[in-house]
Design brief:
The complex is a heterodimer of chains A (124) and B (645). By secondary structure, chain A is α/β, with parallel strands linked by helices. Chain A has 5 helices and 5 strands; from the N terminus they run E-H-E-H-E-H-E-H-E-H. In chain A, 42% of the residues lie in helices and 21% in strands. In chain A, helix 2 packs parallel to helix 3. The radius of gyration of chain A is 13 Å and the shape is globular. Chain B folds into 5 domains: 118 residues, 3-Layer(aba) Sandwich (Rossmann fold), CATH 3.40.50.2300; 96 residues, Orthogonal Bundle (Arc Repressor Mutant, subunit A); 106 residues, Four Helix Bundle (Hemerythrin (Met), subunit A) (Up-down Bundle), CATH 1.20.120; 135 residues, Rossmann fold, CATH 3.40.50; 124 residues, Rossmann fold (3-Layer(aba) Sandwich). In chain B, strand 12, helix 14 and strand 13 form a beta-alpha-beta unit. Chain B is globular, with a radius of gyration of 27 Å. Chain B starts with a strand and ends with a helix. The chains are: A alpha/beta (124), B alpha/beta (645). Chains A and B meet through helix 1 and strand 2 of A and helix 10, helix 11 and helix 12 of B.
């Protein structure tokens, strides 16, 4: 696998840290982090990551709003987005897919499995 | 590390024992195959070295016997026969490696060390815990670069703790692992070794509680404090490697295992900072619940609390703290917007918050087996109906279970041989599912239908033999009493009717897997110290975590620390007797379901009756053999687990 750059947008620092460590260790990919939707959009615009992992439930700007915003900018609309959701929200999976996200990964996950999951969803 | 050497050649024994003890291994030597079986099946070893030519029972048969009893201890065979057939025979019998006499001593030692590393959960030659480094090749120990001078036993003790750094070792386990079966040291000996090791570590600058004590349970390595090696939580790219550079891996072939260990160490480090935050979040939730007792929550209070509960659940799940995560999810479900909680709900929510606090507080170390998809257990599906197996596969995937499907008899039988496997996986299955009949009904030339069913008996039996520890689940179109009996006799663990939906099958399977993964905590209260001392050995084959307690006065403290899954009580004890302890236990709502077994010299009807009156689940009379006690414990556990799921 070639080196990829992943952006994770999640307001929980612990999740950011653990995901970053797990992906870096398993696949050697770079992981950028952002703690809110608005910061995530900025990072996505400037850094142009290969994919974005986006938490659905965040205060202020939630994952859905963030996704819609990302879609509205020409610099970010091509970047594939994978939503991170809790099991309880998995029922809404169809609704998420209808939005146009590339995929959904259910929490809790093992960060070591993430590169495989991402690669499978995005057909890398 | 403890090695069993089964060898009748005295000069060779002398040479090997000398080399191995010089490397701090504890060696038990026996001279014939039958004694080898007695020792190997009684005590726990990290490795067994068996000569092929042995009196009474040869090494290959001995090896076969261990394997057929489900013993997975690494085995190395020694032989004078240098023919490839002998070698193949040995490996077929389940040996892990094979050395031909005359051999180079250095090579043999290297092979032994490689096998020991394979058996250990930590495959590195350098064992690293923060600034502490133990090199198993050179036997050097340093703290922060400063060498430590340790005695043989101190070294072995430290190595034991480092090899499985997530584990609490009881004094009995340490005795069992570090002393040969001819020595009879006391628990005080272990304590004094621990004390001296702590002092030496402290002199080198290590925190005094690096080797921490869990009262009533034993010793473990304390999770590392949040130090400079921990990556900060903001954007940064290089810091995580800092934790890895000091670890020298010798096993590139097994990167997945290495990364799991490193990931686990990282999670444990991160947990030390996450834990206080999580406790604060629980405190915030508890405060909201208290406010709810008085007034309905404002929209803002409810939203905030909902978010906190949601985040908490997400974090706890990441660390594999499943029970705590579920509690947080339950709290979250009370706080979802459209149906605000009422003051009448406050009591239940408060109980949830208290339990959640306790769960988080008790989580001292993150375990590999708890991690979500950590093992990605493999389910082997044998089914002639591809539609059914495909829907099983899809559902299994959503639950983090990998699958391998065998649709033909040939594919199925490939799994009974060791290699090569039909799929890319080299992993052994964690569970096996067999759907009967294996062959679909076919129409023959006369237009009559015939069932080409292979004899499923032999198949189930073969799988039960090939994978003795793996549960087999059978789905059958025939579920009369006699069919059920047959399947149970063949070794089927669970029988489902063919009407079972794929979803139900996977649910049953995850329950089955959950049971086999986590060792049960068994707490034994008895004032008979000799009996207590024999228990860990007696019950070891069943993989329980045993905590023994001789002083009933400490019952409640130890109970809260150990959180046992089963409690075994003696009746006659000074100051407080077993019946009274059971009454105390049953008076607390948390402990209503805990299985309690009485074990007593009293054989009279009245005592037994009294035990059941105060809340016992079972009553056994002393003397009892290990297997009986283990059986009763196992069956109690199975019932409770079946009930709770």
């Amino acid at each position: 696998m070639t080196t990829r750059r992943i952006l994770i947008i999640d307001d929980e620092e612990t999740i950011q840290t653990v995901v970053q460590f797990g992906i870096k260790m398993t696949a050697g990919w770079d992981v950028l982090t952002a703690s809110s939707g608005s910061k995530g959009i900025q990072t996505a615009q400037t850094e142009q990551p290969d994919a974005i992992l986006l938490d659905v439930m965040m205060p202020e700007m939630d994952g859905i709003a963030t996704f819609k915003a990302l879609q509205s900018y020409p610099e970010t609309e091509q970047i594939p987005v994978i939503l991170l959701t809790a099991k309880a929200q998995a029922a809404e999976k169809r609704q998420f897919n209808d939005l146009g996200v590339s995929g959904v990964i259910t929490k809790p996950f093992n960060s070591l499995d993430l590169p495989d999951q991402i690669a499978r969803i995005l057909h890398w | 590390m403890k090695i069993l050497l089964v060898e009748d050649d005295e000069p060779l024994i002398a040479v090997l024992t000398k080399s191995l003890t010089a490397l701090h291994y504890v060696v038990d030597v026996v001279n014939d195959g039958e004694m080898g079986w007695n020792y190997g099946s009684t005590f726990e070893y990290d490795l067994m070295v068996l000569d092929v030519m042995l009196p009474k029972l040869d090494g290959v048969s001995l090896c076969q016997r261990f394997r057929s009893h489900g013993d997975t201890t690494p085995i190395l065979l020694l032989t004078a026969q240098d023919s490839s057939t002998a070698r193949v025979q040995g490996l077929d019998a389940g040996a892990d490696d094979y050395v031909v006499k005359p051999f180079d001593r250095a090579e043999l030692i290297a092979r032994i060390r490689a096998l020991l590393r394979r058996g250990s959960t930590n495959p590195f030659t350098s064992l690293v815990w923060g600034d502490l480094v133990l090199n198993t090749s050179t036997c050097e120990v340093t703290y922060n670069g400063q060498p430590l001078t340790l005695t043989a036993k101190e070294y072995e003790l430290l190595e034991l703790l480092l090899r499985d750094s997530q584990r609490v070792y009881s004094t009995d386990e340490i005795l069992d692992r570090l002393w040969s079966s001819e020595e009879y040291p006391s628990e005080a000996t272990v304590r004094s070794h621990v004390r001296r090791l702590r002092q030496k570590l402290a002199v080198a600058g290590a925190p005094h509680d690096l080797i921490a004590t869990v009262h009533g349970r034993g010793y473990f390595l304390k999770a590392l404090e949040n130090s400079s090696t921990l990556p900060a939580a903001t954007v940064q790219k290089s810091a995580p490697e800092l934790c890895l550079t000091s670890v020298v891996s010798e096993r590139f072939s097994d990167r997945r295992l290495d990364s799991q260990q490193q990931y686990l160490a990282f999670l444990n480090q991160t947990w030390t900072t996450t834990k206080p935050n999580s406790l604060n979040q629980v405190a915030m939730l508890a405060q909201t619940v208290r406010a709810l007792h008085v007034n309905p929550l404002t929209v803002q209070q409810q939203t905030e609390a909902h978010q906190v509960a949601h985040k908490l659940a997400g974090n706890l799940g990441m660390f594999g703290l499943t029970h705590a995560m579920q509690l947080a999810r339950q709290l979250e479900s009370w706080l979802i917007g459209d149906a605000p909680p009422q003051s009448g709900d406050a009591a239940l929510m408060e109980a949830l918050a208290i339990e959640l606090h306790q769960e988080i507080d008790n989580a001292t170390a993150i375990q590999l087996c708890q991690l979500p998809n950590g093992h990605s257990p493999l389910l082997l599906i044998m089914d002639s109906d591809p539609n059914f197996s495909q829907s099983l596969e899809a559902i299994a995937k959503t639950r983090g279970i990998q699958t391998a499907i065998a649709t033909t008899i040939a594919e199925t039988e490939a799994w009974l041989r060791s290699a090569p496997r039909p799929s890319c996986s080299d992993q052994d299955p964690a569970a096996i599912l067999l759907r009967l009949p294996l062959m679909p009904t076919q129409v023959n030339a006369n237009g009559k239908t015939t069932v080409l069913e292979t004899e499923p008996v032999s198949l189930v039996q073969k799988f039960a033999q090939r994978y003795p520890a793996v549960p087999i689940l059978v789905i059958s179109d025939r579920s009369e009493l006699s069919d059920r009996l047959k399947i149970a006799q063949w070794g089927g663990k669970l029988l489902l009717e063919s009407s079972a939906a794929p979803e139900q099958v996977i649910i049953a399977l995850t329950q089955l897997l959950r049971k086999s993964h986590t060792p049960a905590n068994v707490m034994v209260v008895d004032d008979d110290l000799d009996w207590l001392a024999t228990l860990p050995t007696l019950l070891k084959p069943w993989g329980f975590n045993i905590t023994t307690l001789a002083d009933p006065q400490q019952f409640w403290t130890v109970l809260q620390t150990v959180l046992p899954d089963v409690l075994v009580l003696d009746v006659n004890m000074p100051q407080i007797n077993g019946f009274e302890l059971c009454q105390i236990l049953r008076s607390d709502p948390q402990w209503q379901r805990l299985p309690v077994l009485f074990l007593s010299v009293r054989t009279d009807f009245n005592s037994q009756n009294q035990a059941f009156t105060v809340g016992a689940d079972d009553y056994l009379c002393k003397p009892v053999v290990g297997v009986d006690l283990a059986n009763r414990i196992l069956h109690r556990l199975q019932r409770v687990q079946a009930w709770s799921s």
